Amino acid sequence: MLATIKTRVKAMFPSVADAGVVSTWGGYIDSTPDAVPVISPVDSIGGMFVAAGCSGHGFGAGPGLGHLAADLVAGGAACVDPTPFRMSRFTDRSKIEVGDF
Ligand SMILES: Cc1cc2nc3c(=O)[nH]c(=O)nc-3n(C[C@H](O)[C@H](O)[C@H](O)COP(=O)(O)OP(=O)(O)OC[C@H]3O[C@@H](n4cnc5c(N)ncnc54)[C@H](O)[C@@H]3O)c2cc1C
Questions:
Q1: What residues does ligand 1 touch, defined as CB less than 6 Å away?
Q2: Cα 99 to Cα 101: distance, rounded to the nearest angstrom
Q3: CA distance 8 to 14
Q4: 17 C-alpha vs ligand 1 centroid, how far in Å?
């Protein structure tokens, strides 16, 4: 994978083609199968809510995610339609498009 990245960077930025790699590391990314966050009550556990799975956009999406999560926990009107973010989409036979990361 690193070789592929280096090839693409060289193609896009020829001026840094000879730059070396100082260090590398690996880790998890918080993703869901469809790359859409889960912001939702957990239907099978009353009072439990999940707000996770931002798939590499958690810093940017965090404020909106937090706003919707707070609305759901408080039980009032939601700031946006929460349907696309429901956890049950993975179990209610909804068609899931595998996300592109
Ligand atoms: C390489 C990389 C680049 C990224 N770049 C961007 C970007 O440019 N823009 C952007 O918007 N987003 C980016 N993101 C995504 C963003 O970092 C995440 O979406 C965001 O940090 C998720 O926040 P979170 O609080 O939901 O989860 P996390 O930040 O993962 O926090 C979860 C916390 O829970 C703790 N924890 C886990 N399990 C347990 C347990 N059992 N008990 C107690 N504590 C536990 C963990 O230690 C961690 O501190 C990037 C992510 C990665 C990996």
A1: 27, 29-30, 52, 54, 56-60
A2: 6
A3: 10
A4: 31
Atom nearest to 61 CA in ligand 1: 11
What does the pLDDT look like over 1-58, one tens digit per residue? Answer: 788 988 999 999 999 988 888 988 888 888 999 999 999 999 999 999 999 999 888 9
Residues 6+ apart with CB under 8 A from 68: 39, 51, 78, 79, 80, 82, 85
Query: Which residue has a Cα nearest atom 17 of ligand 1?
Result: 58
The answer to whether 32 touches 40, Cβ cutoff 8 Å, is no
* Cα 34 to averaged position of ligand 1 atoms, centre (Å): 17
The closest residue, in CA terms, to atom 53 on ligand 1 is: 29
Q: What stretch of H or E contains 70?
A: helix 58-74
Query: pLDDT digit string (tens) for 77-94?
Result: 999 999 999 999 999 999
Residue 39's identity, in one-letter code, is I
